[in-house]
């Protein structure tokens, strides 16, 4: 675990080396609504003919590997980063992305958050689970974005902070979708982290069942989450957003259908990623379309007073 104490510098060094060697592909993006061409290049889980699906975390390229987090996880750079130093915490053994997170997943994730905090920096983590969450790989992984990189491109003089942290304040900001949030105590134990996560997930599952018609069937195993959701993590907050859809198709200024514009857990950081300039132009010119997408991806906030209200 000694390497993780200098994690920010370790990630930056490996990112620069991987970019120089061509092991990863990075494009500058726009903020706050970010145009990220890397998303268009990012493959969904692929399965070659007559073989098992390709697992990018089974044997990650040496040029992308950052460090082990014993005993059960490792860190690797995202091959298709949306911002500099975008990295991933993955399980060494294959575990399903749709399974409920285990205590050691959250323990390893918080170790990354704490390492950045101890180095005077901030880190935002997010987890996508389920078909409607924006998840692209079945091997369990949590993604991390350094907050300083997330701030790049902001207009001078404009203050911006990670949305997840503001969602634990009182009053909380109004959002078009329902979320469940909890502050984290300073240096929480793995047991506490897991208890908070389970509580948020239980609330989200209960809301989702009330929102959609429940036929009473359990389509997953006991380990599998019955809903799609995004989880956000900082060293101060944990936020969970139940998802109803991955995205929405919208009309361009010419009336052409574009999209679907798919959103993942970066929404809980306050960043919305689009993969084409056509999508960017349509949303930047009409904020109502952006509002429509945010309302469509989750449970409308008016249905639950505990979540952020629009």
From TrEMBL:
UniProt-listed PANTHER family: 5',5'''-P-1,P-4-TETRAPHOSPHATE PHOSPHORYLASE 2, AP-4-A PHOSPHORYLASE II
Biased composition (Low complexity): 41-53
Superkingdom of the organism of origin: Eukaryota
Descriptive protein name: HIT-like protein
Origin species: Hyaloscypha hepaticicola
Positions of the Ap4A phosphorylase 1/2 N-terminal domain: 30-152
InterPro entries attached to this UniProt entry: Ap4A_phos1/2, Ap4A_phos1/2-like, Ap4A_phos1/2_N, ATP_adenylylTrfase_C, HIT-like_sf
Gene Ontology biological process terms in this record: nucleotide metabolic process
A GO term, aspect molecular function: ATP:ADP adenylyltransferase activity
């Amino acid at each position: 675990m000694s390497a993780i104490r200098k994690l920010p510098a370790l990630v930056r060094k490996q990112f620069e080396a991987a970019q120089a060697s061509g092991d990863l592909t990075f494009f500058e993006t726009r903020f706050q609504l970010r145009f990220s061409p890397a998303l268009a290049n990012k493959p969904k889980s692929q399965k070659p003919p007559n073989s098992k699906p390709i697992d990018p975390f089974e044997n990650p390229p040496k040029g992308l590997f950052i460090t082990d987090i014993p005993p059960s996880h490792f860190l690797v750079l995202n091959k298709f980063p949306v911002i500099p130093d975008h990295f991933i915490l993955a399980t060494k053994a294959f575990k399903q992305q749709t399974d409920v997170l285990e205590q050691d997943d959250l323990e390893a994730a918080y170790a990354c958050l704490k390492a950045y905090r101890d180095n005077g920096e901030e880190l935002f983590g997010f987890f996508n689970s389920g078909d409607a969450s924006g998840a692209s790989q079945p091997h369990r992984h949590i993604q991390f974005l350094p907050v300083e990189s997330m701030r790049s491109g902001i207009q001078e003089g404009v203050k911006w902070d990670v949305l997840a942290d503001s969602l634990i304040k009182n009053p909380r900001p109004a959002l078009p979708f329902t979320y469940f949030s909890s502050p984290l105590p300073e240096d929480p134990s793995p047991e506490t982290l897991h208890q908070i996560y389970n509580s948020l997930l239980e609330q989200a599952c209960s809301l989702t069942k009330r929102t959609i018609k429940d036929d009473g069937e359990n389509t997953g195993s006991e380990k599998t989450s019955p809903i799609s959701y995004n989880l956000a993590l900082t060293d101060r907050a944990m936020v969970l957003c139940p998802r109803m859809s991955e995205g929405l198709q919208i009309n361009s200024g010419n009336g052409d259908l574009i999209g679907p514009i798919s959103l993942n857990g970066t929404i809980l950081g306050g960043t919305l990623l689009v993969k084409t300039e056509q999508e960017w132009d349509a949303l930047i010119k009409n904020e109502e379309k952006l509002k429509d997408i945010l309302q469509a991806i989750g449970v409308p906030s008016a249905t639950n007073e505990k979540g952020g209200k629009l």
